[in-house]
Amino acid sequence: MSQKRILVTGAVGQIGSELTMELRRRYGNDNVVATGRKTAPSDELKDSGPFKFIDVSDIESVAETVKEYNIGTIHHLAAILSAVGEANPVLAWRVNITGLFNVLEVAREHGCAVMTPSSIGAFGPTTPLDNTPQVTIQRPTSMYGVTKVAGELLCDYYHSRFGVDTRGLRYPGIISNVTLPGGGTTDYAVEIYYEAIKNGTYTCPLGAGTFLDMMYMPDAVDAAIDLMEADPDKLTARNAYNVSAMAFDPEKLAAEIRKHIPGFTMDYDVDEMKQGIANSWPNSMDDSSAREDWGWNPKFGLPEMTEDMLKVLGAKHEKGEL
Predict the structure, then answer these.
(1) ∠ at Cα 156 (58, 171), nearest 5°?
(2) pTM given for the model
(3) Burial of 253: CB neighbours in 10 Å, binned 0-12, 13-18, 19+
(4) Number of C-beta neighbours around residue 234 at 10 A
């Protein structure tokens, strides 16, 4: 039998687009199959390896792709994010739960391993906000959060009941200089860099003092790959590892940007829906389990990320690409 390949759903999204390229660099272009539902892939994504349009809420399209490409591992990233999920909860449930269920069913039938990201959205207002424990109360108040808790439990079930090798991370907000975010509560932390470069000013939808866990995309990609390469016998929180790299509020982020762009200004126009979601999420997570079990160790803090973001986006701006 030919070599088992890796499938990435949601490969056109913010995390998926960069994870796919890194997987191709590590394992070979032809061994990583990228999929999306509607959005056209970038030329880099499309030309560097196999790409196919599928709908994860249609189990047959998932099964056909797994069989066609002899898939052994699925990075399941197709999802509706928090703010979009509140605007359309029915769609969020269909994509985030029905889609995951379909992926797990196909994985059970074909012996695939599955990585599914969870999120800080899996927590709620009754969760301890500071140094949020690995195991704690999870009563989210957004549809996105509800689907993330259900997803963690569903993956636990498929592992314990059917032996599917499921693994997952509770990602914080993810910051990228490649793909724009897709409707999440933490999107401001990406947008602020673009606006700082282009206009020197930003209107923030979250209020001052809103601390949230964040992570730079290179660390997010490494976390997903490192978890899938980890010794399964050492995974104590298999489908729900807290992972974090930094925590800041809008004021702290703006102050870091001013170290590079002294004239940068920021004001506020608070989006009540996003603010409500953010208020229910942790200020900071305890990710000691991930560090102990599989060596999680992020490379970027706020200063390093800010320097790199502004360098990359500044170069793009000079070329007229922003």
Answers:
(1) 80
(2) 0.92
(3) buried
(4) 10
User: Can you tell me the distance from the alpha carbon of 235 to that of 248, in angstroms, rounded to the nearest whole number?
Assistant: 29
pLDDT digits (tens, 9 = 90+) for 172-211: 999 999 877 677 788 899 999 999 999 999 999 999 999 9
Q: From 262, 279, 159, select the one nearest 208 (Cα to Cα).
A: 279
Q: Report the DSSP pairing between strands 166-167 and 113-115.
A: parallel
Please tell me which residue, 322 or 253, carries the higher pLDDT value. Answer: 253
Spell out a b/e string for 11-45, using b for 16 or more CB atoms within 10 Å of the CB, else e.
bbbbbbbbbbbbbbeeeeeebbbbbbbeeebeeeb
Which residues are bridge partners to 118 per DSSP?
A: 170
Non-local CB neighbours of 252 within 8 Å, separated by 6+ positions: 302
Please give the positions annotated as active site. Answer: 144
3-state helix, strand and coil shares in percent for the chain, rounded to the nearest 5: 50, 15, 35
Q: Which residue shows structure tokens 């803090």?
A: 301
β-pair partners for 247: 213
Cα 1 to Cα 23, 63, 65, 246, distances in angstroms: 21, 18, 17, 44
Query: How far apart are alpha carbons 42 and 16 in whole angstroms?
Result: 12
Share of the chain above pLDDT 90, in %: 89
Residue 63: per-residue pLDDT: 98
How many alpha carbons lie under 13 Å from residue 136 in its C-beta half-sphere?
Answer: 23
122: buried, middle or exposed (CB in 10 Å: 19+, 13-18, 0-12)?
buried
- Poorest-pLDDT segment among 2-16, 88-102, 211-225, 294-308: 2-16
The domain ranges of the chain are: 5-172+215-242, 175-213+246-280+300-318
- Mean pLDDT for 161-165 is 98
- Which phi and psi (to 5°) does residue 227 adopt? -65, -40
On whether the 5-172+215-242 domain is CATH 3.40.50.720, my answer is: yes
Q: Which fold has domain 175-213+246-280+300-318?
A: UDP-galactose 4-epimerase; domain 1 (3.90.25)
